[in-house]
Amino acid sequence: xxxxxxxxxxxxxxxxxxxxxxxxxxxxxxxxxxxxxxxxxxxxxxxxxxxxxxxxxxxxxxxxxxxxxxxxxxxxxxxxxxxxxxxxxxxxxxxxxxxxxxxxxxxxxxxxxxxxxxxxxxxxxxxxxxxxxxxxxxxxxxxxxxxxxxxxxxxxxxxxxxxxxxxxxxxxxxxxxxxxxxxxxxxx
Length: 188
Description:
By secondary structure, the chain is of the alpha+beta class. 37% of the residues lie in helices and 11% in strands. The protein has helices spanning 2-10, 29-36, 70-75, 103-117, 137-150, 165-168, 175-187, and strands at 17-23, 61-67, 126-128, 160-162. The strands form two sheets. Strands 1-2 form a two-stranded antiparallel ribbon. A two-stranded parallel sheet has the order 3-4. α5 links the parallel β3 and β4 (160-162). α4 packs across α5 (137-150). The longest helix has 15 residues, at 103-117. The radius of gyration is 18 Å and the shape is globular. 20% of the residues are buried. The mean pLDDT is 93.
């Protein structure tokens, strides 16, 4: 939603855009399926990038942001919480399963976003990651980030990483807006 909103703004298709997400869990079958598939944390909490993390915790949430071109927001006297320098989206490509991300696809799209935004990764001090809290997915996400950053720098441990999921669980279709909101509140 954020990528499409930004694309529409950059192409002049709209003067402003609202982007966000919502996730509400309304039926108990969801939890039965998650439990049977062994997707859910055995400890009842999400431990993004944590030792012994073994699953995610579903969360509910809703959020939205109003987006405008920077010059328009300044002219309108808006409270500006952040500036989006670039966005990118992809499909994960071929993987070994629904819960197994593709580190090569992740590295490619991160690299594309950095290139389009003209940002040197060495200047990034924090990344709000997906970080579902799984022993398989979290390391693959780190691998994708490392591969993308390696094209620019061999420096290590200069960028903090976190995930709002450790605080509120995985809001699924609202996970992106939850992460963005966390970053905006951190900067504020």
